[in-house]
Specification:
heterotetramer, A: 308 residues, alpha/beta, 8-stranded parallel beta sheet, 4-stranded antiparallel beta sheet, 16 strands, 18% strand, B: 263 residues, 6-stranded antiparallel beta sheet, 6 helices, 23% helix, 33% strand, globular, binds flavin-adenine dinucleotide, binds flavin mononucleotide, binds FE2/S2 (inorganic) cluster
Chain lengths: 308, 263, 308, 263
């Protein structure tokens, strides 16, 4: 029997498999027992209500998905009043994804979210930073660190920084977030993409460009995890195109301590269970007693501390 | 169907896969648990060979002991792949999902207004109503007689069907409006239902409001998960707290007739 | 009969379809008539001989390819003596892809390549810049502009700048290259990716990370073309995952004046002919008399000058 | 086969697809032009259903009027997909590509040393030699008798075959070396050929050098295009100008026996 538990900063997760923000909700409990997951990750919550982007909000592109949902939501106050209670029926740790327009707003929101029932805050710093006229916090080390430092100062909860592929040097952003006090990194959010509808001869998404996810994004996300895990000592949670247990094993061998599964759930609603079984089968077949032993195995040098 | 986990991906053997008329296709699969669980207006999210995303498809035929059916227009790669399935192939259908139509056993008559492939969405409602002895008046609109899928809609259930066509002008709003008014005067329905045309939706909203008859409409939107997770399928819907972007896959695809804002 | 000709800076090409550097050679003349192409693009030539990277140099990943060939070659002197003559039997314009370790080396090499038979120089500035300890020229506007300006000053030939997806702000790099005198942009080179071999539990490529190309890369390349074509007035040549005529049409609608086809040739050796036929069929079916009319059609605003 | 454009992608109908022994599979397709053009040692680049890159595969059977054959070990997704093909399916084979084996009509005898699936690469050479009345001595090495594909190699052509196995130790280098020396003493070959084992390659290089017999070896390398375009398939080869990285798909897969550097 393989030990699937992993440590992510202060948290011990019963499984390395968790959902990716924005692709998950309590509705999935109609498909399987959500307490089989290592953690539950919410859609990004925003300080104020947001309507989101015009439709179509998703488009298919080969072996992948383009989305421009626009983080619609009722805002933190309503989320605390209505959504948080709905999550309490699950035993798995609840990770709240947080998105905000400024470092100060991130701090205030993190403070508001520091309530019983919330196990960690995942800072979605891929969203636009109004103080840098709309460039994402995660595009540069400076703004990324400012946001994480502000959150760190505002809460005692573990803080996960979710990085963006849309940057010139993700290792630098990763180090900046570690130095600013992040307990873990989630790598990565979607990469900016585009599809043109040949019937309308216009972008397939109502918003124009969108985030690319799914299998076609996997080789890039795997590279980002490799770069970040080499750059920091905090755990890296791999995310991007994971569909099978073998995909997840690749991420862990590249340096990830855990994984998130997003778009795959749209294709197979029980994908996260299949991924969990696949990881366990790989470990059993290759003689690993603990899934944590996989982390960083593909490195030429020593294994990263993230695995310990 | 496990009560605790009502939604699942079901792999069913294809029993029938054949064209219907010039532009449509029907598929029947063997998926007993799913077929028994589905209610009229609900849909399944279908894995189409060779394309990445699933495609949402209303359930056209279902019931305990009956095979599960879909009736669709070949619109692009996904539906083309579905139409390419052959008896013996398997189809992965995820469901049942979505809010079904209301069907009150106390009703005496319902009126259905469907356009094009919208009748696929309303057919099961008509059959279930007829089976319960509820009278069904159906006004079916199509481009031309060749496109009308009368048998596909009514099967051999007893109902009052009126066909209108673009080809002879009988589908023009004014003409359809007059027809509906006459039908309602002749045999007043307890509820009205529509799917498939925004123009007809607005027409029916007006008449039902005047006549003060309750109703429901089934609508479509581009989908990702069909599980209520991604919020890609929202449509503007009037609610008690004002207009809201609701999920067609979750709060819909069936909404109160008057709550659907025409786009 | 659709007019397939396009203008790229000073050059008029009989077709918008040409090969991508490193995926093409005179050997392909064994498969079809290379003069059906708009231009012939060589593998990147380097000032000095290079051995290239350890094998395996390619790996498969879903709907795409990872490569780390390492630009092996005999160096410019030998290329001019042996390879250039072999290209002279073709009538289509010859575009020489050039890679060098410094702006000065780019300039010297461009000067050496300014000989009869060479129609344009494509500067592969995605390669490591030894003066920026190995970061690619195209990663930042400054080094990119320095390389292009040096080449511009060294040759009278049209200069195409081939940009890299591995940057935080490709629009800024595009503008910098335009200002430095580039006649056209090629968008884009491969994006950095990774695959792990589960049997060996090590990277699938001998060199570790590699460049990701093919259909899975397409949505990203299309977005890069969209961003660059909005940022500059010089023509943009789209490249990344193009396999069919419809793919090429998407790139042109997004703002490309021409396209390059790379990995698709590995799957279907006559892919470039199929792409050309597909573009012509789309134009005929939608009533476009000239393929150049497609450029930028998907824009909400006016069409870009690149199309004129 | 168009003389001006000798290389093309040929879509052939699968005639035979069946396992050979425990770990191998053979496929015969109907691709007349390609089959007539192929020479021993050349290969095709095969499109395998469901995987992106083509897979290189030596031609095992070919000839004017004959179907085109491949014999392979199921090693992963690509070869598994090939093994999944059924009669009536089609296979897209790109070729012929690569440098063939030399076969001098003046020769009286050749000696072939093959290991495992390397015999698939050498079988056509043996058959063509035998057909021309050239004597063939073949030493075939395999893990165990069950793995030896004697019939697959020799068909029913006349040749002198020696089988050696790991299971009884007869495939050990020393034993094979002695066997080769004896065979060469008994009937000296004009040329020697090998494929499938680095150890046997080195062994044969030594013997051929001592006996001063010319020879060729066919080798493998991970491939992208198989057309000489991408330089992914290089191997270190000794040339007149010193060691060079040559393309297995273009300058090879057949190289002078002594030019191949053991890795
Ligand atoms: C709840 C629901 C029930 C439906 N029931 C039926 C039915 O019974 N019969 C029928 O013929 N069609 C039905 N549709 C429409 C059907 O889903 C689309 O025609 C189909 O997805 C088109 O896919 P395609 O690849 O063939 O065409 P494409 O247009 O190429 O599809 C491309 C993309 O657009 C999406 N898409 C295109 N049109 C629609 C649409 N109208 N609604 C949602 N997504 C769309 C596809 O999912 C895909 O992501 C229904 C749609 C919804 C939302
Ligand atoms: C010129 C040539 C001739 C060959 N002839 C034969 C033959 O007659 N019979 C036979 O059984 N095999 C032959 N091979 C080996 C065959 O190509 C590989 O076994 C096959 O590509 C494995 O693909 P896979 O997806 O099944 O396995 P995988 O190992 O999963 O393939 C993964 C990747 O590795 C590549 N690859 C793996 N092994 C090899 C290899 N040895 N050589 C080149 N690429 C490889 C594949 O192309 C693919 O890109 C030949 C190889 C070459 C280069
Ligand atoms: C429809 C959709 C909505 C998403 N919403 C969010 C979000 O609100 N916050 C966030 O941090 N990431 C969001 N993401 C990104 C995913 O969490 C994940 O990082 C990305 O999709 C890559 O993983 P995948 O390939 O497994 O989907 C969203 C992705 C999709 C497809
Ligand atoms: C095997 C291989 C070798 C390549 N070599 C070069 C090169 O030498 N110079 C260059 O500028 N780009 C090179 N590229 C990048 C391609 O020119 C092209 O930009 C990239 O592959 C994206 O296009 P595609 O998806 O159509 O292949 C190479 C790509 C591949 C796959
Ligand atoms: S399709 Fe995902 S919420 Fe409706
Ligand atoms: S496989 Fe491309 S050069 Fe040999």
């Amino acid at each position: 029997m393989v030990d699937l538990s992993v440590r992510i900063g202060g948290l011990r997760l019963a499984s390395p498999v968790m959902p990716a923000s924005g692709t998950f909700g309590p509705e999935l409990a109609e498909v399987f027992d959500l307490d089989l997951l290592g953690a539950l990750v919410t859609k990004s919550v925003t300080p104020d209500p947001r309507r989101g982007n015009p439709t179509p909000r998703v488009a298919e592109t080969g072996q992948g998905l383009l989305n421009s949902i626009g983080i619609p939501g009722k805002g933190i106050a309503a989320w605390l009043a209505h959504d948080l209670p709905a999550w309490q029926r699950f035993a798995a740790p609840l990770v709240v994804s947080l998105s905000a327009p400024s470092a100060a707003a991130f701090a205030a929101a993190a403070r508001a979210l520091s309530v019983p029932g919330v196990a960690a805050i995942e800072a979605n710093i891929s969203c636009p930073n109004l103080e840098e006229d709309g460039r994402a916090f995660a595009a540069e080390p400076g703004p990324a660190a400012a946001a994480i430092a502000a959150i760190r100062a505002a809460t005692a909860l573990p803080v996960w920084a979710k990085l963006s592929p849309n940057t010139g040097d993700i290792a630098a952003v990763a180090r900046a977030c570690e130095d600013a006090g992040a307990d873990a990194l989630v790598v990565a959010n979607t990469i900016l993409g585009l599809a043109i509808d040949l019937d309308t001869m216009a972008p397939a998404l109502g918003a124009g460009m969108g985030g690319y996810s799914g299998p076609g994004f996997k080789p890039i996300a795997l590279r980002l995890v490799w770069q970040c895990a080499h750059a920091v000592r905090i755990p890296v949670i791999g995310c991007g195109g994971i569909t099978t247990g073998n995909d997840a094993v690749e991420f862990m061998l590249a340096g990830a301590a855990a994984v998130q599964v997003g778009t795959a759930t749209f294709i197979q609603p029980a994908a996260m269970l299949r991924v969990t079984e696949g990881i366990a089968a790989f470990c059993a077949g290759r003689g690993f007693a603990r899934v944590a032993e996989l982390t960083g195995r593909a490195w030429s040098g020593a294994r990263p501390l993230a695995a310990e | 169907m496990d009560g605790a986990y009502p939604v699942a991906s079901h792999i069913g053997a294809v029993l029938v896969s054949e064209p219907v008329g010039a532009r449509y296709h029907r598929i029947l699969i063997d998926a007993p648990a799913l077929s028994a669980a589905v209610r009229p207006g609900q849909f399944c999210h279908l894995l189409c060979p060779g394309v990445y995303l699933r495609r949402p498809m209303s359930v056209w035929r279902a019931g305990p002991g009956e095979s599960l059916g879909f009736l669709f227009r070949v619109a692009g790669p996904g539906t083309a792949a579905l139409a390419g399935l052959r008896a013996g192939d398997t189809l992965d259908a995820m469901g049942p999902v979505g809010r079904p139509f209301s069907l009150d056993p106390g009703w005496r008559r319902i009126l259905i207004l469907a356009r094009g492939v919208g009748l696929a969405t309303l057919s099961l409602l008509a059959l279930r109503a007829a089976a319960r002895g509820i009278g069904v008046t159906a006004v079916l609109s199509a481009r031309e007689p060749a496109d009308l899928m009368l048998a596909a809609f009514a099967s051999d259930a007893p109902m009052q069907v009126h066909a209108v066509f673009d080809s002879d002008g009988s589908s023009a709003p004014a003409a359809v409006g007059a027809l509906l008014a006459a039908e309602i005067a002749r045999a007043r329905p307890d509820a009205v239902f529509t799917c498939g045309s925004d123009r007809l939706l607005r027409l029916l909203q007006g008449i039902a409001a005047r006549e003060n008859i309750p109703g429901e409409a089934a609508i479509e939107q581009r989908m990702g998960c069909a599980l209520g997770l991604c919020f890609s399928c929202v449509r503007r819907i009037a609610t008690a707290d004002g207009p809201r972007d609701l999920r067609v896959c979750r709060e819909g695809p069936v909404f109160d007739l008057h709550s659907v804002e025409a786009w």
